[in-house]
DNA sequence: TGCTGATGCGTTATGATATTACATACAATG
DNA sequence: CATTGTATGTAATATCATAACGCATCAGCA
């Protein structure tokens, strides 16, 4: 099941599966999956939405795991740089990756009504953007693809908005 | 000539052309192209790069056109909402549109070495992202497409980076 | 003319996001 | 057991953005 995010699902196993995958990745690549890093990923996974760094920090602080911004940002940097989480630029927020370990270019569908975020996939080097980059002689290394709109639930709920 | 941005060009006429186009648009749509708004666009056009709001504000302040952040942000909101400028989310910065008036979905090629930004075009509702959105029942209204990499000049200058 | 609403601007204050810099802890290496 | 590299703790600061209020201007209208 390769859900892209707005459907109902077995959240508990979704969290467990992602955690296990990340653990395996860290073990395989000798990455230190420290308590803070692990906890931040757990928070992101369990909330299943994009969260600001300070929002995460609030949780860490309550749990005695850290109280200053760098604690949260460092953990997030680790997760993002290893693709266990992604930054949603449009929201200045972070979200757990829905398929850690697989190399991929995330693309996000962001609901402007309920703030739900789903992770899809982009292939930046293909399509019209890749063509433009080729013509310009630009070497794409990384891409941010984020669509803002209405998620299926909100289209139903507020048909006027659709 | 539909340049997408890294080449040398006749910058003076590039600025003039864009300004004229925006003036015409404003006249046609009864938009108030006030001195502050005009000056902010001129600054963005003449610098021909992505600039932070405070950087723009510094210029305005020197010229006696405004000294507090809301002055810059309000002018930028106007320019962005009418598509005379765009926000580059990845840089938290703003850049003049290279073809104001035409309805379009901008996509940016951002050089990580020299910070040059070129505007290309995306068609978010097509391609793999549009397909994913359709399948998910998500209605795309707007898209952020930003590629980070090396521009042609920097690829030459630092071949090791390429 | 005088009222009224809409829009833009001036200013203060504050909020939200992110980083620098330096000190400390600790495990792995030799 | 000294050295080194990596992670964490903490204070301070930098950067990006908005809320809220009041005033000025101008168009539409009684
Ligand atoms: Zn992902
Ligand atoms: Zn929604
Ligand atoms: Zn444009
Ligand atoms: Zn460059």
Quaternary structure state of the chains depicted: homodimer
Task: Tell me the greatest interface.
Answer: A-B, 41 and 41 residues
Low-confidence stretches of chain A: none
What's the pLDDT, averaged over the residues of chain A? 90
Distance between the termini of chain A: 28 Å
Instruction: Write down the overall geometry of chain A.
Output: globular
What is the beta-strand fraction of chain A? 15-25%
Backbone structural class of chain A:
alpha+beta
Family (chains A, B): Belongs to the Fur family.
InterPro entries (chains A, B): FUR (IPR002481), Fur_C (IPR043135), WH-like_DNA-bd_sf (IPR036388), WH_DNA-bd_sf (IPR036390)
Keywords (chains A, B): DNA-binding, Metal-binding, Repressor, Transcription, Transcription regulation, Zinc
GO molecular function, one term (chains A, B): zinc ion binding
Protein model, in words:
The structure is a homodimer of 162-residue chains. Chain A contains six helices and five strands. Chain A has 162 residues and is α+β, with helices and mostly antiparallel strands. Chain A has one domain (11-155): Arc Repressor Mutant, subunit A, CATH 1.10.10.10. In chain A, the strands form two sheets. Chain A has a three-stranded mixed sheet with strand order 4-3-5. In chain A, helix 1 packs antiparallel against helix 2 and helix 2 crosses helix 4 (69-81). The mean pLDDT of chain A is 90. Chains A and B meet through strand 3, strand 4, helix 5 and strand 5 of A and strand 3, strand 4, helix 5 and strand 5 of B. Bound molecules: zinc ion (ZN) (4 copies). One zinc ion binds at residues 86, 97-99, 104, 106, 119 of chain B. Chain B binds a DNA duplex (30 and 30 nucleotides) through residues 32, 34, 36-37, 52-54, 66-71, 73-74, 78, 92. Chains A, B: Keywords: DNA-binding, Metal-binding, Repressor, Transcription, Transcription regulation, Zinc. Chains A, B: This is Fur family transcriptional regulator, zinc uptake regulator. Chains A, B: One of its GO terms (cellular component) is cytosol. Chains A, B: It comes from Roseovarius tolerans.
